């Protein structure tokens, strides 16, 4: 937060945004980061980038040892871009390719691997060390940044989430709303039922059901939470 309010600390804080697929987390997180001058970290993109490389190399999620061996050497960079976050994998721009239906169908299977999660969590914690980060994912409030000053759990009805994803598709003829709804529900199930860091609302997270909220309303609500947090920290 860059605003100087007299008598209050203006220390940077960390903001954790978790929730199921298609709840609008990344758009909202980007807007909140923009409003506060913070850095946005899309942790889903990191799991997607790993999945892309594993599929390219034909390494199945069952071969955990090989997955880890390869993942440890990957260089994943998240850079602010003109149209959202740019994702680089070993220097190559994979922003588009990590959003394919193939990646959607497989990412949750790789994201269940304990060693891979440990690796990703440690990278994510490093990114948040200096504060001023808005991080979105599934386990940010519970595992990655349990001390984040503001935690939000964003959700929405599965049909609404599928509808939003459908509208974003560049070639909607490649699928159907019904299939998208089934795919999202299946990814939610895998993410919520896995043993390590399942998708779960942290006890101290604020629940935001966005089914009937616009993206702007949601991001304004989160910015208000951040400002309220700053005000609790009066130094006078
Ligand atoms: O957020 P996004 O839908 O891009 O995430 C893709 C997948 O990555 C999720 O379905 C989940 O399996 C995995 N993921 C995770 N933990 C995170 C972020 C994403 O397991 N913090």
Structure explained in plain terms:
The protein is of the alpha/beta class and 236 residues long. It has nine helices and eight strands. The chain has helices at residues 25-36, 43-57, 64-71, 101-110, 114-128, 140-144, 158-168, 177-193, 215-232, and strands at residues 14-18, 39-42, 76-81, 84-89, 92-93, 133-137, 150-155, 206-209. A hairpin with a 2-residue loop joins strand 3 (76-81) and strand 4 (84-89). Helix 1 (25-36) crosses helix 9 (215-232) and helix 2 packs across helix 4. The two termini are 18 Å apart. The structure holds cytidine-5'-monophosphate. Cytidine-5'-monophosphate (C5P) binds next to helix 2, helix 4 and helix 8.
Summarize the structure.
By secondary structure, this protein is of the alpha/beta class.
Low-confidence stretches: 1-8, 231-236
Can you give the helix content as a percent range?
40-55%
Overall morphology: globular
What's the SSE pattern? EHEHHEEEHHEHEHHEH
The N- and C-terminal alpha carbons lie at a distance of 18 Å
Number of strands: 8
Tally of domains: 1
Query: What's the CATH architecture name?
Result: 3-Layer(aba) Sandwich
Strand order of the largest sheet: 2-6-1-7-8
Structural class: alpha/beta
As for the CATH topology, it is: Rossmann fold
Strand content of the residues, in percent? 15-25%
Q: List bound small molecules.
A: cytidine-5'-monophosphate
CATH superfamily: P-loop containing nucleotide triphosphate hydrolases
The major beta sheet can be summarized as:
5 strands, parallel
Q: Give the C-alpha Rg.
A: 18 Å
């Amino acid at each position: 937060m860059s605003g100087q309010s007299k008598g209050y600390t203006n220390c940077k804080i960390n903001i954790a945004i978790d929730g199921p697929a298609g709840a609008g987390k990344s758009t909202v997180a980007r807007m909140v980061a923009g409003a506060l001058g913070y850095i946005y970290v899309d942790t889903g993109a990191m799991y997607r980038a790993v999945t892309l490389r594993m599929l390219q190399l034909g390494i199945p999620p069952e071969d955990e040892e090989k997955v880890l061996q390869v993942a440890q050497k990957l260089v994943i960079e998240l850079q602010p871009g003109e149209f959202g976050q740019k994702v680089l994998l070993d220097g190559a721009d994979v922003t588009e390719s990590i959003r394919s239906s193939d990646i959607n169908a497989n990412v949750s299977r790789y994201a269940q691997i304990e060693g891979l999660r440990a690796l990703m969590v440690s990278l994510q914690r490093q990114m948040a060390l200096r504060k001023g980060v808005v991080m979105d994912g599934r386990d940010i409030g519970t595992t990655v940044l349990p001390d984040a000053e503001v935690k939000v759990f964003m959700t929405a009805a599965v049909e609404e989430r599928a509808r939003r994803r459908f509208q974003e598709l560049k070639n909607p003829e490649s699928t159907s709303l019904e299939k998208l709804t089934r795919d999202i529900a299946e990814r939610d199930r895998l993410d919520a039922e896995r043993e390590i860091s399942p998708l779960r609302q942290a006890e101290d997270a604020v629940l935001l059901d966005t089914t009937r909220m616009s993206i702007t309303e949601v991001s304004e609500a989160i910015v208000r939470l951040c400002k309220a947090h700053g005000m609790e920290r009066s130094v006078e």
